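Slide 14.
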Amino acid sequence: MESIFLKLVFPPPPSIFLNTLSLISIPSFALGGLSEFRGNNMPYSKFFTNNTNNNNNNNHVTATNLQKQSSSQEKKTKEVSSRLGMLICYTPAFLASLAFYLLFPQESYNLRMLLLSSALALHFFKRIFEVLCVHKYSGSMALKTAMTIGISYLSSTASMIYAQHLSQGLAEPPIDLKYIGSLLFLIGLSGNFYHHYLLSKLREKGEKKYKIPKGGLFGLVICPHYMFEIIEFLGFFFISQTLHSFSIAIGTMFYLVGRSVATRRWYLTKFESFPQHVKALIPYVF
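Slide 15: predicted structure.
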């Protein structure tokens, strides 16, 4: 098994920093996923405190306590609009993916490097487009949360491109996966965008309450957009075939597994009519 895997990746680059970062990426993302699974959720979207009043079905928090929580939250947390918060999340990583062409212009002729940087740029361009033109928002977002997510995406994007840069001149993996990776990326990108579009159509103009998603694969899993995002990150790994992109892809998968379980649990709590057969992430399985 190990020998097969070694045929899929470049040798580790001569960088202690990057190799150390690769080693800690999987457990750090996994801990984030475990935290989501246990209910200590990253406070954005439906898990942000201020959104509690948008869905009060089966809500055991009294109005008085809710007001106290909101007041305390406002004192402790600097908030921005959800749209601005999401732009803070995605814009730095998008700019980092474009910076490749300025920092490594001589490598723009390397197909693998070009495919990776272009895929990353397209991934975050789509995110920014969705923020500006697709998503509908029901509240605000903690600035600290937006900055934390933004730094995470920025570091992952920049380090994947840097790992690819350091792999230039190393022996190519015997099994070439960059074309399969490009196909996986496009499938993941399209599926993620389609289900984000379906989510945006759930609310009428001015409406803020959450609803049970319908259409697409929402009849089978509550987070098909996460499933397709995992496919995207696997596409990044297949394109680049570096150990670091592998650690980012597996780490992202662990985190989104935890987030999807938390999301399904949230819908079960808020909606008595939520269909029990709908899984969290993988149709019919999980």
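Speaker note: Strands lie at 79-81, 140-142.
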